Amino acid sequence: MKRVNHLLSPKGLQTTPSLRGCGAPEAISKLVDCFVALRAPRNDGGFTLIEVLIAIVIIATGLVLIVEGMGRSQEAIGISQNLITASRLAEEKMTDIGLDVQQRHSPYPGMEKGTERDGGRVFGWTKQTAAYADPSIEDQSKMNQSEVTVKWKEGAHRENEVKVDTLFLKREEKE
């Protein structure tokens, strides 16, 4: 079987030798070789369009997930900051009750309410003090229970609260 040599010249593609005198199988083989030579060279180093589109979809999905995760982490940070602020406020109000105990021998029974602002958020607090009632204690007149509740809103509908309570032993009055 003779091989067809292809020459590229300014006039175009030239083949030698001619197909004259060849049998049908040889002629077909030479024609196939000519068509293969006319085809654009294949670049196996690049990507197809579908491969590029799939890569773009994967990258876009990853970026969306990362941005969503960042948003949720910012929300969690805000909730944590509010919880820390509310806990600090509850501790501060409980300390006020403790000071009342030291100065007056026991906190006054009753309730006190107020609000405080911190970073644009409004925290409502309530201090309650009452005589402690527990049937297992013989002399309940010596105990007071104090409770501090701090409430605030997260978003439009979610209300959170922190409660702190403790028992105070009434101090004996000195004569």
Which fold does the CATH topology of the largest domain refer to?
Pantoate--beta-alanine Ligase, Chain: A,domain 2
CATH class term of the largest domain: Alpha Beta
Give a count of the beta strands, DSSP E runs of length 2 or more: 6
Q: Kindly report the spatial arrangement of strands forming the biggest sheet.
A: 3-4-5-6
State the end-to-end distance: 131 Å
Strand content: 25-35%
Radius of gyration: 43 Å
CATH superfamily of the largest domain: GSPII I/J protein-like
Q: Which spans have pLDDT < 50 for at least 5 consecutive residues? A: none
- Element-by-element helix/strand order: EEHHEEEE
Number of domains: 2
Shape, please? rod-shaped
Largest sheet: 4 strands, antiparallel
- Tally of helical segments: 2
Estimate the helix proportion, in percent. 40-55%
CATH architecture name of the largest domain? 2-Layer Sandwich
Average pLDDT, rounded to a whole number, is 78
Structural class computed from helices and strand pairing: alpha+beta
